[in-house]
Amino acid sequence: MTIDTYLSHLNLPDAHSHKGQNGKLLIVGGSELFHAASKWSLDVASKFVDMVFYSSVPANNELVQQAKGEFWNGIVIPRQEIENYMAEADGVLIGPGMTRSSETEEITNQLLKKYAHKKWVIDAGALQMINPELLNQNCIVTPHQGEFERLLEKEDRLSEGSNADQGVTFSQAHFNVCLLIKGETDVVIQGSTIELISGGNAGMTKGGTGDVLAGLVAALYCTNDALTSAVVGSYINKKAGEELWKSVGPNFNASDLVATIPKVLWTELNKTYR
Question: What are phi and psi of 78, to 5 degrees?
Fold first, then answer.
């Protein structure tokens, strides 16, 4: 399908909807080492869903709580209360800013096993520690090239084939899990469907741009299907980078990307529906 077709499939807030009907996202992320990463995810997500629940390690929760009035309208919850919000959340993003640790492995695999029916976006640290056998059709995974290869190695699936070929095999082996393999050209795969999204520029090599993408995809996934969310998220993230290039070249950061994404998405939607 063309990108315009995916954009036309995107669910937009109904004029008569009320608070809570346009998505609630639970983000589990951050660590004492990478406290900023999950901030970019929740920053962008808060622009598209009605509510964001955020949970990190205690030290990071405190940082987010202090800054909350400046950048986020949501609820900070302790790790021990995550399951109390699972039922209310339409989707879950896990991994931004999480380290490759036994704690990350435990919380990721326990939650995914217990709540396999939820809409999941699995990124960064959580993706590196996941048991691939737990992946299913409700999951979107967002690996860069190295993380994708490690996923394949865990199941002895790494071969000489292209990302697309290996991705189709992996997706079909895991109940059509949706893959968004990040790179100069993103590769989005679900089952036998393959979409290539080119674009972006050298400014997007900076830290945090992948966390922005994960937050955008997760926010869209709260009210849309997995493939549409991954394709549109990838496309808009790259288009936002291109828009920033027009004014500042490569001299922008993840926060600039967060601020630009809503404008770019709205512009693209207006082109599609005009």
Answer: -65, 155
Report pTM.
0.94
Instruction: Tally the residues of the chain.
Output: 274
Give the C-alpha distances (Å, rounded to integers) separating 98 from 62, 105, 179, 240.
Answer: 16, 10, 20, 25
Asked if pLDDT for residue 71 goes beyond 50, the answer is no
- CA dist 148 and 127 (Å) reads 9
Q: What are phi and psi of 207, to 5 degrees?
A: -60, 140
CB burial of 90-107 (b: ≥16 within 10 Å; e: otherwise) equals: bbbbbbbbbbeeeebbeb
* Better-predicted residue by pLDDT, 189 or 99: 189
Give pLDDT, residue 12. Answer: 86
261-274: pLDDT as tens digits: 999 999 999 987 65
- Going by pLDDT thresholds of 50, 70 and 90, the confidence category of residue 73 is low
Q: Where are the alpha helices (DSSP H) in the chain?
A: 3-9, 37-45, 58-71, 82-86, 102-114, 124-129, 145-154, 163-173, 209-221, 226-248, 254-273
Q: In what order do the strands lie in the sheet with 185-190?
A: 74-76, 51-55, 24-28, 91-94, 119-122, 139-141, 178-181, 185-190, 193-198
CA-CA-CA-CA torsion sign (237, 238, 244, 249): positive
CA dihedral 220, 223, 227, 233 (to 10 degrees): -10
Are 157 and 170 in contact by the 8 Å Cβ rule? The answer is yes
Burial of 189 per CB tally in 10 Å (0-12, 13-18, 19+): buried
Report the SS3 class of residue 148: helix
